[in-house]
Automatic annotation (TrEMBL):
GO terms for molecular function: FAD binding; FMN binding; NADP binding; NADPH dehydrogenase activity. NCBIfam families: PRK08255.1 (NF006101). It holds the Pfam family Oxidored_FMN. PANTHER family: BLR3436 PROTEIN (PTHR43303:SF3), NADPH DEHYDROGENASE C23G7.10C-RELATED (PTHR43303). The lineage of its organism: Bacteria, Pseudomonadati, Pseudomonadota, Alphaproteobacteria, Rhodobacterales. This is Salicylyl-CoA 5-hydroxylase. Transmembrane segments: none annotated. Residues 13-338 form the FAD-binding domain. Residues 406-738 form the NADH:flavin oxidoreductase/NADH oxidase N-terminal domain.
């Protein structure tokens, strides 16, 4: 349905700088709303002299266009090329998945259609009108509104940079936008080629009967090694034709950027602007924010913003109010897409990390790279392909079923887990004088019954002085009977395994129970603290003693005794807690380690004591049982602290020392941290560690849906997934997840069989109602 015209609107004079999709579509949208508006488009190029080949638009976008202007929507739709498949080609291997539903149109065609429609509606189109800074000032004075749709290098944005406050982040990779008559009409095709200089790849898709877009991309090293930075366009294209020869079937690669000097390779500028307007000047399209060609949403965003801007300017508001609403609404919408674009951009920047994965996992990782497409979403798109991916995962894990990845088994040394769900360590503050209580027995036993393959205890402290709070439990000779009772129950009554997390609070010790004021010192009865350096946690907390060698020996012996106690209690696994700012972590982070001896300074030196402890613990722990280490992969303190790049080295050193897996966490090192919590926010760190050092990883952090777990595992971003808070609200999270997924193979404790049957029946009924 087209909108209603608002007759009482005042006629407006609008100058549009740039006749790309956004500018032209805004011009059309203005004239449609009020034909009396005087709308002029100033475009520096000739009508058919445009850079680029095809653009992709989705069904959802087309339906927005139909509501706005059914005429141009039909024009566009009549010229579409459609395809449903995504094909991954890596060297000589390839794999296709379906159900992705794209449509494409040539950029030139799109612009010609929009130009015609604009002309038909009375828009004044001035071509070869390169608008200078002086001219922009003149237009401001003579038009009611100046719309800057002058693209990603917007002159207007630069001219008024103080007002718009743009941030331009030049991305690492280089790319060139070419075309070809080779057919890619069966699928949106990603081609990865390994060359003598490294990997280079193409994003190829058909956009009309005989032409396809062929975007070539590579990292900076490969770009330089091929000499693309020095070649002219002709030589650069000839080289690309050679590299991709076996995919081009003898067809040439073509450029339509002859007006551009140099090789036409560019880097992608990620543009964001604090403000999208001032006075009567407003940014639109790529001038205001860019997405990334790898998710193909730039034209869509620009054109949808054009609709909103025209709407706001025609609903009777003052100019200022209209522009403010436009900014508020569109900034948010655009942010959603640009966040996905950021993930996708970064995936391609780091693609070498994934190129060694099995093609199945690599394809899955590619398809889910923007994090907009989830595991279950892929099932809807192509159930057969996802089933084959799940079967591949199970087979590789040694499983025989066709269950979801979260229900695949996993083995570390001799410990066999029935699935990939882990109850993350969580302090309970319910111990008395270092002794675990009935609370611990009930709490952990209940979670072990809940179906998770592995249950972690909270941090068990190696000494009373190593506790965080008076409510924290210890692990030593005195606690063996209590912990044994729990471990025996878990082994006798459930298929779960149980891991003791062992640590020392360091400078974060001697504080109150969480609910009495987390991290605040005790009102009375404080004990002495140890840390890498004498830096208090925060104002009011005691200054710890910087450990000398004798302290190190004492603490190391305590860790070893703790391991012996864990072995005596028959835990299945131990984890050394070297994260979250506690004692061992205080050595690793440069924020908390300011030592000038052999245990401070470079990362190698800062790792020395934690590695000594690790070796001593490993030696005291039965060889057939696994041992992991938890690290903070990011201190969230910019370059002052540990950054994910360091985490790869830290994890690498622990792997070398014999860690069976790395539990990748982050933060809590210092109160000045500035973490960014989002859905699955620590997964990128785990992904990096796992695939860079080739060690299994565990990951936690805002992961709460079975869909999250399956996509993390299937894409190879971690091997085990920890859920903390979800297990506080639901001890039976895994059993319920199986019900939600329609997985009837999940075993429940025998006395709960009636509950299992009812839950599955109710879930099936609910599904039948909604489908
Ligand atoms: C390799 C690549 C592939 C892409 N693939 C897709 C895709 O598949 N789908 C998709 O939706 N988007 C895609 N995009 C993005 C898309 O091209 C842009 O997001 C889209 O064109 C933005 O529209 P726009 O009107 O804001 O800017 P532009 O299309 O850049 O238009 C700006 C116009 O302003 C003109 N101009 C600039 N300065 C002046 C001046 N001073 N005076 C007069 N005129 C001026 C320019 O000549 C140009 O015509 C891709 C981009 C690249 C680089
Ligand atoms: C109440 C509570 C106590 C925690 N105690 C510990 C702990 O003892 N050791 C540890 O390594 N992490 C601890 N954590 C962190 C969790 O293990 C987990 O990494 C974090 O909560 C993020 O996961 P989530 O988003 O699933 O909650 C604790 C978290 C919570 C909520």
């Amino acid at each position: 349905m087209a909108f209603a015209l608002q007759a009482e609107e005042e006629t407006m004079k609008a100058a549009i700088l740039g006749g790309g999709p956004a500018g032209l579509y805004f011009a059309i949208s203005m004239k449609l709303r009020d034909p009396s508006h005087e709308v002029s488009v100033f475009e520096r190029n000739k009508p058919d002299d445009t850079f680029g080949w095809g653009v992709v638009l989705s069904d959802e976008t087309m339906s927005n266009f139909e509501d706005n202007d059914p005429v141009s929507e039909k024009m566009i739709r009549d010229n579409f090329a459609y395809w449903d498949d995504v094909k991954t080609v890596r060297g000589t291997e390839s794999m296709t998945s379906s159900g992705h539903g794209f449509c494409g149109i040539g950029r030139k065609k799109l612009l010609m259609l929009l130009q015609n429609r604009a002309r038909e509606l009375g828009v004044i189109l001035e071509f070869q009108a390169d608008v200078s800074a002086e001219r922009i000032e003149e237009l401001r004075a003579t038009f009611d509104v100046v719309v800057a749709s002058d693209g990603l290098n917007s002159k207007t944005r630069t001219l008024y940079a103080e007002k718009f406050e743009p941030e331009i982040d030049m991305r690492l990779n280089h790319f060139v936008w070419l075309g070809t008559h080779q057919k890619f009409d069966d699928a949106f095709t990603f081609i990865f080629e390994e060359t003598e200089h490294g990997w280079i790849w193409a994003h190829a898709y058909q956009f009309d009967a005989d032409t396809a877009t062929f975007i070539i991309e590579c990292g900076p090293k490969v770009y330089k090694a091929f000499g693309f930075d020095t070649l002219n366009q002709e030589d650069s294209i000839a080289l690309c034709e050679k590299i991709f020869a076996r995919h081009l079937g003898g067809h040439a690669l073509m450029t339509n950027a002859n007006h551009i000097r140099g090789s036409a390779w560019i880097q992608f500028p990620r543009v964001t602007c604090e403000n999208w307007y001032f006075d009567n000047v407003v940014l639109l399209g790529d001038a205001s924010a860019t997405a990334h060609y790898s998710i193909g949403s730039g034209s869509k965003l620009g054109m949808e913003s054009a609709i909103m801007l025209a709407q706001e300017l025609n609903c009777g508001k003052s100019l200022g109010d209209a522009l403010q609403t436009y900014q508020d609404e569109r900034k948010l919408q655009v942010l959603r897409v640009t966040s996905a674009a950021r993930n996708s951009t970064e995936w391609f920047e780091e693609v070498e990390r994934y190129l060694t994965l099995d093609l199945m996992q690599f394809t899955y990782s590619l398809l889910t790279r923007s994090q907009r497409i989830s595991h279950e979403n892929l099932r809807l798109r192509d159930p057969a392909w996802l089933a084959s991916a799940e079967a591949w995962f199970q087979k590789r894990a040694g499983g025989t079923s066709s269950r979801s990845p979260m229900f695949a088994p996993f083995k570390l040394r001799n410990m066999e887990l029935v699935n990939r769900i882990v109850v993350s360590p969580m302090a309970q503050y319910k111990a008395q004088d270092g002794m675990p209580t009935d609370w611990h027995f009930v709490h952990y036993a209940e979670r072990a019954k809940g179906g998770a393959g592995l249950v972690f205890t909270e941090m068990l402290c190696v000494s009373k002085d190593g506790r965080i709070t008076p409510g924290c439990p210890c692990i030593g000779v005195d606690q063996v009977p209590a912990w044994s009772r729990l471990v025996d129950f878990v082994h006798a009554e459930t298929p779960a395994k149980i891991c003791a997390q062992i640590g020392h609070a360091g400078r974060k010790g001697s504080t109150r129970l969480a609910w009495d004021g987390i991290d605040k010192p005790l009102p009375t009865g404080n004990w002495d603290l140890l840390s890498a350096s004498a830096i208090a946690l925060m104002e009011g907390n005691a200054e710890p003693k910087a450990m000398d060698r004798a302290d190190m020996d004492t603490v190391m012996a305590q860790f070893v005794d703790a391991v012996k106690a864990a072995a005596a209690a028959n835990f299945d696994m131990i984890e050394m807690h070297a994260a979250h700012g506690y004692l061992l972590a205080s050595f690793i982070s440069p924020v908390t380690n300011k030592r000038d001896d052999a245990y401070g300074g470079s990362l190698e030196h800062r790792m020395r004591f934690p590695l000594e402890v690790f070796h001593a613990m490993r030696a005291a722990w039965p060889a057939e049982k696994p041992m992991t280490v938890r690290i903070s992969a990011h201190d969230w303190m910019a370059d002052e602290g540990v950054i994910p790049e360091d985490a790869v080295d830290i994890a690498g050193m622990f792997k070398e020392a014999g860690a069976d897996a790395i539990n990748v966490s982050s933060g809590q090192t210092d109160k000045k941290e500035q973490p960014i919590y989002g859905r699955m926010f620590q997964v990128p760190f785990s992904d990096r560690v796992r695939n860079d050092i080739g060690a299994p990883t565990l990951v936690a952090g805002n992961i709460y849906e079975p869909d999250h777990v399956n996509s993390i595992l299937m894409a190879g971003r971690a091997d085990l997934v920890l859920l903390a808070r979800p297990h506080l609200s639901d001890p039976y999270w895994t059993l319920h997840a199986a019900v939600e997924l329609g997985d009837t193979e999940q075993a429940w404790p025998a006395p709960y069989e009636g509950g299992r049957r009812q839950a599955n029946t109710l879930a099936e009924r609910a599904k039948a109602v909604t489908t």
